[in-house]
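FW: tagging you since you asked about this chain on Friday. Here's the raw sequence from the shared folder, copied in full. Didn't touch anything.
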Amino acid sequence: MKKLFFVTVMVAVGMIATACGPSTSDYQQAASSTLESFMRAYNVAANTPRLGLAVPILSMEESRQEWDRMEVPGCAQTGHLSVSQAMDKYINAFLAFAAQEEDDVVNTFFTSGDLSLAEGQESIAETCGFSDGSVWG
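HL: got it, structure written out here
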């Protein structure tokens, strides 16, 4: 009975590793680096007057495109999409701010982006089994 249990556990662990793929550590490093780049551009944009937002928004968009080109392990697909959506919402928030849209519109984009980012990070950390509870190393 113990031997059967051990074999079952080993098969289950192997299935999880296969579902996530061998590249979860590579993904974790790439995701961390790309999100760091995005958040640096976000912080620059947050401290830039409306007329100067073109460059930081472009930097955010470049990081967003890099995020989309990443090879994503199966375990991270859902969370990766949520982070991607968060990036879109942040970019849209700064575009709305630059276009002098109503504060409610801008704030809705930021709040929605915050929620999507938190959901994405949590999903990736849980489903990929990152021990520190974070995808970001």
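FW: The longest helix spans residues 103-128.
HL: agreed, and DSSP finds five helices and no strands in the chain.
FW: great, closing this out.
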